[in-house]
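Tokens for chain A. Residues wanted.
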């Protein structure tokens, strides 16, 4: 029975292939309709979140550049522990002298 159904389906497909499809009604002004639809899509406003997602690679590169700059071109840390502690103390004293506290 399954073999008979397959043959019947094959004959049905063959008959469907022999019937020509009339697309003449759709062919009229197809290019005009297509270009109008594409023009409408181009005029649509891109939402702000789509713009942000497109800018993610730019921000990632910017963060990478800042990280490389900060690690390579920043001031070298002092090896002297006392100098590291007293540097903020000098700024604090200078601020107190200048503000009169």
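Reply:
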């Amino acid at each position: 029975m399954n073999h008979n159904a397959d043959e019947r389906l094959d004959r049905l497909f063959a008959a469907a292939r022999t019937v020509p499809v009339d697309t003449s009604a759709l062919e009229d002004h197809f290019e005009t309709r297509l270009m109008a639809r594409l023009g409408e899509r181009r005029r649509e406003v891109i939402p702000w979140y789509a713009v942000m997602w497109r800018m993610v690679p730019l921000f990632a590169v910017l963060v990478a550049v800042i990280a490389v700059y900060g690690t390579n071109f920043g001031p070298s840390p002092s090896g002297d522990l006392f100098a590291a502690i007293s540097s903020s103390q000098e700024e604090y004293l200078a601020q107190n002298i200048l503000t009169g506290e």
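Residues 2-99 form one domain. The chain has one domain: 2-99.
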